[in-house]
Amino acid sequence: MKYKTIHFPSIDSTNAYLKENYEEIDGFTFVSTDYQTQGKGRNDREWIANKKENLLFSLLIKDEEIIKEGSFLSLVAAVSVAQVLQQYGLSNIEIKWPNDIYVNDKKIVGILLEGRIPDYLVIGIGFNVNQKEFNGEYRKTPTSMFLQLNEEIDIDKLKEDVYETLFNNLVHYSSDKGKFLKYFKNHDYLLNKEVEYVFNKNIYFGIVKGIDEDFNIIIQSEKEEHHISSGEITLLNKHNG
Ligand code: BTN
Q: pTM here?
């Protein structure tokens, strides 16, 4: 079994394209683009990326066995991305639960999972590659591979490397889930940090204790410990996250 690839010079959003067309497109098809006019980030935010300077793609998954892994797919995607960044010589790579990738305390890759379980899932990934300036509105200015390594990256080669790593990890990971959890635990951006989060519709403050075996984040609030499977965790301002 191998994957298929499609490339568009420009498109609204590679995630939206696969969501609209998943019935006609084979599972394990990667769709990439040089530019998105309506790139989408987590929590209904925009994902803005300069033309031809970044790696923007989505992968369609229709395999029921893989889809049912649910939030573990965030883990596999994030670890795959981190492994490739490591291969390219980046260091101080951390994963902000569930799947933002940070290098030297700045965001470098964003991941957005969308879909309808059990029919299909789309894993969308935006890599900041050769972009040198970020002029949008950010809580904290992101970084790129160029800014970290001070060299231009061949985006087509990077794309191949990411596709291979992500595909192989998705197909094989269930035999070695512990390896991915361990990788995350060794690169946990939020560990021991003070955060704000929502649990059962209430806002809490707490300290991140890590992740459990189901990839829920564990947070100790003043009175109780919460295990959370989804939602946004905001670093408190003193950490500037
Ligand atoms: C985040 O907010 O961190 C997630 C960003 C995900 C962006 C990627 S770029 C390719 C794919 N298409 C989209 O519209 N979004 C994802």
A: 0.95
